[in-house]
Each structure stands twice: as structure tokens, then as C-alpha cells.
Design goal:
290 residues; alpha+beta; Immunoglobulin-like; 2 domains; four-stranded mixed sheet; 23% helix; elongated; binds copper (II) ion
Length: 290
């Protein structure tokens, strides 16, 4: 995560310098600078421990947190009561250093200092509006920014039933998480289910939550020799028709190998045990009559 953040910072600087070269494309709120109030490591600076405590940027704009105080601070998205939201976290910013973040999604983002929880602030990200159209002409810039907010690793989780026999409808659950185990958004992937050399099910999914369920009816029993293969391939983050980002091509597979032999054997054992029990009982009850 650290290295990714550092990587993103380079992207940020690259974008920042482009923004400086073509300020008109980014409007007035491309960048905001927030400083830590002097002496904010002891309470009493409220409500202006971050100066200014509220800043507004356009979507895709940058907030730079400068630490000109005499103590280390963090800028961590979230609130002291609910904890970090995960949108950004500077970790400790040493005296004289700064941290910057680019925010693409419009909204209101509260943040705080993890070390000094009385230090709170807000970043407001406004939809870029007219500036957005101009900015979209710069296809390359747009791409870099998308990458900045896109997970570079995906964890594909596939849930499938333990048993599967002919005619049964099985449900396959797919969940795509990012490298931190968090849910993903605007997630695209292909789901393919094959059994007995036959493709039973094929779907290209666009999921807003990175989750989906698929019902598949089997034409034959699944067995050790004849497992149901479920393959999920990540095809990128983005809206259909957009340029896709992320670790495209990441694949995960599971086989539904119902331990059919074992289960059948167990059922048989139980059945035999019951027959013996019933027989024994009936003999006991029949005995006196005879
Ligand atoms: Cu602090």
C-alpha cells in the first residue's frame, strides 16, 4: 500500500504540473492547500486546527496538506468517532513535509488527524461541470487519474455449493475485492461454468458492488472425474463502453467436486444403521407375541 501511495504521488505531481501548464482546463478549484495550525498538537485550536478547515475542489482536483507545525500530523479521511473511511490516509506527515491527494468523486469528505483527534476538517469535491468537458479532451490526463483511484490488485472470491447432482440448480456467488479486502465498484468480469466438456453458463457482468450471483442447472452429476469448473476473469473497472482499468485478466477458478462418493457412502451407512435399528426394535416388539 505504501509503495502504491508513493506511486500515486508521482502521478499526482505529474498531473499537478500538467494542471499548472493548462490551468484553464481545470477551473478555479483544481487545487487547495491546507496547513496544520501552529500548536495544534495540543487541544485549543478547534475548529481551525486545519487551515482552512473546509476546502472545496473540483472533481479530479488536488488537496495538499502542508505540515508547517512543530509536530507530526496525519490527514486521514473519516471521523474520530467512526475512524478512517479509507478514502485517503497520509500516515504521519513530518514537520516541513506535505501530503497530497486527488479526489475524483464529488462529495463531502470529513477528515481528521489520527494523532490529535480534535483536529478535524472537511474537503468538498464538486462535480466539475463545464470544466469537465474540456478536461475530457485530455484523454491521457483522464486515464492517469482513473488509475490513481483504481485498485491495482483484485481478489476474486467464488462461492459454490459442495454438492451438485444432475438437474440441480446451483448458485455461484462471485465477489471481487480489492487488495485490502474492501469491496469494489463498477466492476466487470466474465463468469464461465463448464461441466462435462460443455459450457453450461457464460455471462459478462458489470456490477456496481463487485458482487453477483449466478444460477446454473446441471445436466449431469458432478463427480471427482467430472467436476463443475467455475472460472471468473476480471475484465476491468469502469462503465461499459469506457476504457477499462485495473489488473485486467486476473482469473480465479474453482471446481465443484462434490465428494459424492463420501456422501453417498455416509447415506448408505445411516440407512443401514436405521434398518438394523428398526429390525431390532420390531423383533423386540414381535418377540413377546410369538
Ligand atoms: Cu495532529
Amino acid at each position: 500500500m505504501k509503495t502504491k501511495t508513493i506511486g500515486s504521488l508521482f502521478v499526482l505531481f505529474a498531473i499537478a504540473s500538467m494542471a499548472a501548464a493548462a490551468p484553464s482546463a481545470y477551473g478555479d478549484h483544481a487545487k487547495a492547500v491546507v496547513e496544520n495550525a501552529a500548536g495544534s498538537s495540543t487541544p485549543g485550536c478547534e475548529p481551525d486546527c486545519f487551515i482552512p478547515a473546509t476546502v472545496t475542489i473540483d472533481a479530479g482536483g488536488e488537496v495538499v496538506f502542508k505540515n508547517n507545525d512543530t509536530a507530526a500530523h496525519t490527514s486521514t479521511a473519516g471521523t474520530p468517532t467512526d475512524g478512517p473511511s479509507g478514502v485517503w490516509d497520509s500516515s504521519l506527515v513530518m514537520v516541513g513535509m506535505s501530503y497530497s491527494v486527488i479526489l475524483d468523486e464529488p462529495g463531502e469528505y470529513p477528515y481528521f488527524c489520527m494523532v490529535h483527534p480534535w483536529m478535524v476538517g472537511t474537503v468538498i469535491v464538486e462535480a466539475a461541470g463545464a470544466a469537465e468537458e474540456e478536461h475530457d479532451d485530455h484523454g491521457d490526463d483522464h486515464g492517469s487519474m482513473e488509475m490513481e483511484s483504481t485498485p491495482s490488485v483484485v481478489d476474486i472470491q467464488i462461492g459454490a455449493p459442495e454438492t451438485a447432482s444432475a438437474g440441480e440448480r446451483i448458485t455461484i456467488d462471485v465477489t471481487i475485492l480489492d487488495g485490502m479486502g474492501m469491496g469494489t465498484e463498477h466492476t466487470n468480469y466474465d463468469v464461465v461454468v463448464t461441466h462435462d466438456g460443455e459450457t453450461l453458463y457464460e455471462d459478462s457482468v458489470h456490477s456496481h458492488t463487485g458482487e453477483s450471483s449466478h444460477d446454473v442447472t446441471l445436466s449431469a452429476d458432478a463427480s471427482d472425474d467430472n467436476p463443475v469448473d467455475v472460472s471468473v476473469t476480471f475484465t476491468g473497472f469502469g462503465f461499459p463502453g469506457d476504457e477499462m482499468t485495473g489488473p485486467i485478466g486476473t482469473t480465479n477458478n474453482v471446481q465443484v467436486v462434490p465428494e459424492f462418493g463420501t456422501i453417498a457412502a455416509l447415506i448408505l451407512v445411516v440407512a443401514i444403521a436405521s434398518i438394523i435399528a428398526i429390525t431390532a426394535k420390531s423383533r423386540v416388539s414381535l418377540m413377546p407375541k410369538l
